[in-house]
Amino acid sequence: MKIGRLLTLMAIVLVMFSQSSDLFAQTRNSQVELYGGIAFPTKPDDFKNYFKNGLSIHGQFVTFPSPRFGVSFGAAYERFSFDDQAFLTDLEEAFGVDLTGVTVEGSASVIELGVGLRPYLTQPEASTQFFLFGMGTYNILKTEATVTGFGASESTAGDENKFGVAFGAGFELPAGESMNIIVQGLYRIIFTADESTSFVGVTGGLVF
């Protein structure tokens, strides 16, 4: 299924539920969620081998057309720093050259806008809530790198806007009368050229 069709389907589902409120008892209030955590590069190999684990920050608004079904609207930011030591070591081994004194500074970042569906596996009155989720995403990717050595310096930068998907699972725990703790794991796939870019995120935060 093309990502455009997926997003259209999600929008249709949301409209259908919003127009069918009499079919469901509204036992969950809409909620705002804030997350922070770590993202682990997985594909392609250059991303996995030469970028360190990144910072992951998320924010979501979730509305509930039915007690065990949520629709989420979110934004996220991930930033990965370049592992120059691993990169330069591989270059030295591959070409048999001494790159002492050469440095590489770089980073990759992703800004994500997403719409998702969240079915719950537990009843609304359960103290611990378990859920699954899937999202269609629009991703703004930025990369930059500066190579310095042998009396010269060269910089490069790139920008891409790509669609993607995310899916995973999580749980919520009560932390007071008006706040919950939430933890989730997700797998993000961004449909970049030639080979998709992907990473695994583990985040935790608060629900208001």
Determine Rg (CA atoms, Å): 21 Å
Order the strands across the largest sheet as they lie in space. Answer: 1-2-3-4-5-6-7-8
CATH architecture: Beta Barrel
Helical percent range? 10-25%
Which H/E pattern describes the elements?
HEHEEHEEEEE
The first-level CATH class name: Mainly Beta
- Average pLDDT, rounded to a whole number, is 89
- The geometry reads as elongated
Distance between the termini: 34 Å
Broad structural category: alpha+beta
Q: What is CATH's topology name?
A: Porin
Strand content: over 45%
Uncertain stretches of 5 or more adjacent residues: 19-26
Structural topology:
Elements lengths: L2 H16 L12 E13 L1 H6 L3 E13 L2 E13 L2 H12 L7 E17 L9 E21 L2 E23 L5 E11 L6 E11 L1
Antiparallel strand pairs: 1-2, 1-8, 2-3, 3-4, 4-5, 5-6, 6-7, 7-8
Short summary:
With 208 residues, the chain is an alpha+beta fold. 16% of the residues lie in helices and 59% in strands.
Describe this structure in words.
With 208 residues, the protein is an alpha+beta fold. An eight-stranded antiparallel β-barrel has the order 1-2-3-4-5-6-7-8. A hairpin with a 2-residue loop joins strand 5 and strand 6. The protein is elongated. About 4% of the residues have low confidence.
